[in-house]
Amino acid sequence: MRCSPLVREPLTQDWAGDLARMFKALGDPVRLRLLSLVASHAGGEACVCDISESFDLSQPTISHHLKVLREAGLLDCERRGTWVYYWVVPSALQQLSAVLLTESAPTVPSEACAEVPA
Amino acid sequence: MRCSPLVREPLTQDWAGDLARMFKALGDPVRLRLLSLVASHAGGEACVCDISESFDLSQPTISHHLKVLREAGLLDCERRGTWVYYWVVPSALQQLSAVLLTESAPTVPSEACAEVPA
After folding, report:
1. How far does the CA of residue B81 sit from the closest CA of chain A (Å)?
2. Which residue numbers delimit the HTH arsR-type domain (chains A, B) (predicted)?
3. Rounded to an integer, what distance in angstroms lies between the CA atom of residue B105 and that of residue B35?
4. pTM recorded for the entire structure
5. If contacts are CB pairs under 8 Å, which of residues 75-114 in chain A contact chain B?
6. ipTM of the complex
7. CA distance linking residue A57 with residue A47, whole number of Å
C-alpha cells in the first residue's frame, strides 16, 4: 500500500529508496521552481522556450534540471517539432503528498491512491 | 500564503529555497526511514537507543542523519539524561504535503495552514 503516510508505520527499505529518489530531485530550488512553473503554466505544460525567460540560467542548464525531474518520474515530456514540452505527473506528486500526511491532516481518498503506480 | 500548492502558481525564489532544504533532507533513504521510524514510534518520539537496532549503521552515523533532519526543521529533540529524544514537527510535514497537492487531490483545510510557521 503505497499511500500509507510515513508517520503511520516505518517505511520499508525499497519504498524509502523510491521515495528518496523523488525527494532528492525536489531538493534543489531551481528544480522546484521549474516544476512549479511547468505545473502552473497555462494548459499544464510548457516548453523550454516558455521557461527560459523566468530563469537567469542557460538553456542547457534548464534542460539538465528538467531531465533530472523527468528521470525521477515527476515530469513527463514529448518532442513536438523544435521543442520538447513538459508536464507534471500528477500521480507522483499525489504519492509524495500522501506519504507526508500527518494524522491531523485529511487523508487522501482511496481513489487517489488507486491511481498511484506501484 | 505558504500552503499554496506548487501546481497553482510559480514558487517564489525564497520559498523554493526553504522548501528545497527540507526536500533535500528527505532525499536519502536512510533519513526517510529514520523519520518514519521516529514518527511511527509509540508515543510519537524515539531515542537513538530505540532506533539503532533497526539499522545496520553505527550510532554516530544515525546521529548525523538525525541532525540533518533536525537542521531542516523536520525533527525536534530534547536531551533527557543519557539519551536525546526525537519527534517529528507535524507543521513541517503538513507544509510539504500541502505544497505537493495537485488539483485533483483534496485541499488542506485553512486551519492546517494556519499552524504552519511562515
Report:
1. 26
2. 11-108
3. 24
4. 0.87
5. 88, 90, 93-94, 96-98, 100-102, 104-106, 108-109, 112
6. 0.87
7. 15
